[in-house]
Specification:
Residues 21-292 form the MASE1 domain. It is a single chain. Helices cover 75% and strands 2% of the residues. The protein is mainly alpha-helical. A two-stranded antiparallel sheet has the order 1-2.
């Protein structure tokens, strides 16, 4: 008989070290991606979308508290790439680590499902995971910069608002997409592939055209977003919203198209309002449609089971009646 070779699992410390390194690398890569599209408003550098918050919240939702060291290391690497580590850097790292943890705790407390198949899940992610929890990171970061004299008092509220919205948009736009990719399976062939390809082509052509047009017509993006969310739920709505948001951010950074002729503050406010409404529309509409479809499938399944049960009872009743008739004869 052939010898059986035992495969020993890695020691747990080694596994934790690899997980920490992987989370840190993902966080740092997302941070560099976010920093590539910076805006300047009254001398303050802001990021309209901060993807690392979405990465951090996703890792916590999927893998739990063991991701916290990786998030802290990744935040430290991002901050260290921008300035010399010091008191302000430590405060920013602390805020960027604690905020996703608080988001995870609040979402877990309300029974959040990573499938985002219910409206309550979308609302929880927006209002708890994004808008509420990210007050910690923005308040800590802007507050530390103010206390260390790296931020003028007059610029505090502008920087705080930009920081808060950027972190919140990272959760609203990035987290649903990563959760969707984590549970993605190859879909069966169907006639909807043609519609999906057509939608992708229309979005890729129309969104840049509208964004870079000298006529302010960003509202034309929303019918496409509604189409994507109605027909494909999260799988269509979130990529469409993220693509439109990235294109708008690039146009705002170049001060062209719908963002031409605006001041720095006006550009930041318009872009963040656009990104915010995009993310909210895509996430909440997709959640509503998914919940309705799941409810419909549940009702259809219950009706089918009821029909089978009635048929079984009728068959049993007919058999009993026939046996009784034979006995009477």
């Amino acid at each position: 008989m052939a010898a059986v070779v035992g495969i020993h699992a890695w020691p747990r410390p080694a596994v934790l070290a690899c997980e920490t390194l992987l989370v840190a690398v993902c966080y740092y890569a997302a941070g560099r991606l976010g920093l590539s599209q910076q805006l300047v408003a009254d001398g303050a550098v802001v990021t309209p979308i901060w993807p690392p918050t979405g990465v951090a919240v996703t890792c916590l939702l999927l893998f739990g508290f063991r991701c916290v060291p990786g998030i802290a290391v990744g935040a430290l690497l991002v901050v260290a790439s921008l300035s010399t580590p010091g008191l302000s850097a430590a405060g920013i790292v602390l805020g960027n680590t604690v905020a996703p943890v608080c988001a995870f705790l609040m979402l877990r407390a309300v029974g959040f499902r990573v499938s985002l198949s219910r409206l309550r899940d979308g609302l929880a992610l927006v209002f708890l995971g994004a808008l509420t929890a990210m007050l910690i990171s923005s308040g800590t970061g802007a507050g530390v910069l103010l206390l260390t004299d790296k931020l003028a008092p007059d610029d505090f509220w502008l920087v705080w608002l930009a920081w808060w919205v950027g972190d919140a948009m990272g959760v609203v736009l990035v987290t649903p997409l990563l959760l969707l990719l984590h549970r993605a399976r190859r879909p069966p062939p169907s006639g909807r592939w043609a519609e999906a390809v057509g939608l992708a082509l229309v979005v890729c052509v129309l969104v840049p055209m509208v964004t870079y047009s000298s006529v302010s017509a960003l509202f034309l993006v929303y019918p496409l977003l509604v189409w994507a969310a109605l027909r494909f739920q999260l799988a269509g709505g979130m990529p469409c919203a993220l693509f439109a948001s990235v294109v708008a951010t690039v146009a705002a950074r170049q001060e062209t198209g719908s963002f031409g002729g605006l001041t720095d503050v006006e550009t930041m406010m318009k872009l963040q309002a656009f990104n915010g409404t995009l993310g909210l529309t895509a996430l909440l509409l997709s959640s509503v449609i998914s919940e309705q479809l799941n409810t419909r499938r549940s009702v259809e399944r219950a009706c089918h089971e009821l029909v089978e049960a009635l048929q079984h009872l009728n068959a049993g009743g007919s058999g009993t009646t026939g046996a009784a008739g034979r006995d009477a004869r």
